[in-house]
Design goal:
Blueprint: H1 3-16, H2 22-34, H3 41-44, H4 51-65, H5 70-74, E1 76-79, E2 82-85, H6 98-107, E3 115-119, H7 125-133, E4 138-143, H8 149-156, E5 162-166, E6 179-184, H9 191-194, H10 206-209, H11 217-226, E7 230-239, H12 245-254, E8 259-264, E9 270-276
Parallel strand pairs: 3-4, 3-6, 4-5, 6-7
Antiparallel strand pairs: 1-2, 7-9, 8-9
Helix pairs in contact: 1-2, 1-4, 2-4, 6-7, 11-12
The protein binds S-adenosylmethionine.
The site of S-adenosylmethionine has 22 residues, from helix 7, strand 4 and helix 10.
Length: about 280
């Protein structure tokens, strides 16, 4: 079987299994196994697969057909132009979260050598993106999960400004120096939404997804616990679920934030809520 034939039969198979983007996923898996990308397929795709490649691709196809996440199979996923190591135990970085990074970088304009928190850091994607574009920043990346921490350490090792902190964000605030900016994409899925998750998301850690109080628990806790950790004119910015911008805005006002506003993601959804002190 040639690489091209393997690509099209894998794409057909994933389509039949209900995978959302079968062509894309097939191309990614074929490239991971053979090194032949979709762009190179017309010429290099005429070569037959080696027996080892066929065996590996068959294994990956089976797993993807079971709706195991593509990103975990590849072991790496790009966020804000930075390759992030991912695997079971850590949340896969989402494109939506780039809105929080954009917002953070805008809020940091004009602040030199800022202190930034990335609370509930997971893979460290937010911390890494801030550190890449603001190498003068000191970023505290706080994470509790023992499964996520190895990914966080690996993904942030190349950024000297990042300090990985193992601990519970609900307890550790007083040990951190005051900050100019708090960023957080905390767990925010309510119990009822947990029942309706896409098949792939069920392989991601529940600890990264589920939150009490209709998904609002971490916003309530972090905003009140960390108000005093913000320097004068400091700000906190949270990623929120698509129904949460109004309640989270209200939570930030109740926590004493003076100016509260929202930012939309590329799909026009209010994805980030900002509170300025
Ligand atoms: C929605 S994920 C966000 C991960 C990453 N920041 C991102 O945007 O992809 C939430 C993260 O919070 C972590 N977490 C949950 N409860 C925590 C707590 N009490 N203290 C610190 N981290 C916590 C989870 O393990 C998970 O990595």
């Amino acid at each position: 079987m040639t690489i091209k034939q393997a690509y099209s039969s894998l794409s057909d198979y994933l389509h039949r299994q209900g995978v959302e983007s079968p062509d894309f996923d097939a191309a990614q898996l074929v490239a991971a196994v053979t090194g032949v990308t979709k762009a190179k397929m017309p010429i290099e795709g005429t070569r037959p697969l080696t027996p080892l490649e066929l065996e590996r691709l068959t294994q990956l196809a089976k797993r993807r057909g079971e709706r195991y996440p593509l990103q975990y199979l590849l072991g790496e996923w790009e966020f804000y132009g930075i390759p992030m190591a991912v695997g079971e135990g850590v949340l896969i970085p989402r494109a939506d979260t780039e809105t929080l990074v954009e917002t953070g970088l805008t809020l940091l304009k004009g602040v030199s050598r800022p202190v930034v928190y990335d609370l509930c850091s997971g893979s460290g994607c937010i911390a890494a993106a801030i550190a890449k574009y603001r190498p003068d920043a000191i970023v505290y990346a706080v994470e509790l999960s023992k499964e996520a921490l190895p990914y966080l350490r690996k993904n942030t090792a190349a950024f000297p400004g990042i300090r990985v902190v193992e601990g519970d964000v609900l307890e550790i605030g007083s040990q951190l120096p005051p900050c100019h900016l708090l960023l957080s994409n905390p767990p925010y899925i309510s119990d009822s939404e947990m029942q309706q998750l896409q098949s792939e998301v069920r392989y991601e850690p529940e600890m990264a997804l589920r939150a009490e109080n209709d998904g609002l628990y971490f916003y309530q806790q972090i905003s009140s616990l960390y108000h005093s950790r913000l320097l004068e004119e400091g700000a906190m910015a949270f990623e929120v679920g698509y129904t949460q911008s109004a309640p989270v805005s209200q939570i930030l006002r109740q926590a004493g934030m003076k100016e509260v506003f929202t930012c939309k993601d590329l799909n026009g959804i209010e994805r980030v809520v900002v509170g300025k002190k």
